[in-house]
Every structure is written in structure tokens, then in C-alpha cells.
Amino acid sequence: MTARIGVVTFPGTLDDKDSLRAVRVAGAEPVSLWHRDKDLHQVDAVILAGGFSYGDYLRAGAISRFSPVMETIIENARAGMPVLGICNGFQILTEAHLLPGAMLQNNHLHFICRDQKLRVENAETAWTSDYSTGQEISVPLKNMDGRYVADERVLDELEAEGRVTFRYLDVNPNGSLRDIAGITNAAGNVVGLMPHPEHAVEPLIGTGRTDGLGFFTSIIKKLVNA
Q1: pLDDT tens-digit readout, 76-122
Q2: Which of 87, 95, 121, 199 is catalytic?
Q3: 196 is catalytic
Q4: Global pTM?
Q5: Which of these is catalytic: 35, 95, 196, 199?
Q6: Which of 35, 121, 198, 199 is catalytic?
Q7: Residues 103/50, Cβ–Cβ less than 8 Å
């Protein structure tokens, strides 16, 4: 069985091609999905790639959340389909209420682009099983609206249920509460994070390391062994 993983393109998406390439490098079949097409074309999992969909008007991800493809993705995600939101994709997942909390402007009010150290907090989701809990990785980070916020009740719930998937190490680049870089839903099939693992799958590009490849090999193993 060859896993088919779809990558959605919205107006203003920047990293769809990188995500498609990462899927191919990991060994799955990449499938391009257009935001106005509700048909997911029989994919087994979906990636919402990074960028500035609709120019981040209103709020980052607020308009994309209402694109026709999202109706199908929301329905399928609630039924168990694996969905990964990277950067703008994470913002869209919060706007769609597939993940709790919200993304605000970085606390220093500047766009940031850097290699970022992360600690893996949960290696049991559909997208993180090829990592080990406590493992430290480095992947590129680039965002303007990357500050994760939620009320104390939600934050405590995420911590108690082990739903923080990644935490920033050494420096908190955007003021995210509790150094949260990524989270998962209760079922573990929906994961969102601000850093960009698709830019760290080959030694020649990104950080010069392959620390991001585990996202894509994790989901392939999950789908093939399902």
C-alpha cells in the first residue's frame, strides 16, 4: 500500500510545494488539493501548509477556514483522518476549532525567521511516532503571527492530557504561552505547530539536517499499518 497524502493550496499559500516534496521524500504519494474543491481525491491524510493565506486579512487563517475544502477536512478529521497544520495551517486549525486556542502576533511585533530548537513532548500522535518523547530537534521557524495563546483552563487541560506535542527550547521566539510550539487534539490525529518540518527533510536544504522528516515517516507508518 502507498499512502496518499494531500497538501492544500489556498490563495497565498507559500510552502505547499515544499510539503509535497517532503511527502515524496518520505516515500508517500503527494496529492495537490485546491481550496475551492471539496473533493479530497481519496487521500489518506491532509497537510495544511504554511504561508499567508488570503494575506492574513482579518486574522491569520480566518478566511481560509471557510474555504470549501475545509468543510470536508473538518468532517473527516472528526472521523479520524490525520491532519497536520504547519504555521498558517496551524492557524487555520485553530480558526476551524479542530485545535483549541488562538494565534496572535509575535510579542515583539516582528516577523521572525530562524532555525529553532524544539523538544518533543508527545511522540504518540499520528504525526510524531517516529520521534522519542524528550528528543530535541531543530527545524526552521518563520512567522509573524506565531504566538500561541489560550486561557488557563485550556492550557492546564493540554498539559494534563499530554496534548502539547512540541515546546520551544533555549528561546521562546514569539511569546507563546508555556513555550508551546505545537499541540494535538485528544484523539492524536490532528496536530498543529508553528515551525516548518517540511524545510528539514534533506541535508542540502533548511537546517542542513533531517529533523523534520519524522513527521512524514510517522504518518506513512501509521497509514500503512492501519
Answers
A1: 999 999 999 999 999 999 999 999 999 999 999 999 999 999 999 99
A2: 87
A3: yes
A4: 0.95
A5: 196
A6: 198
A7: no
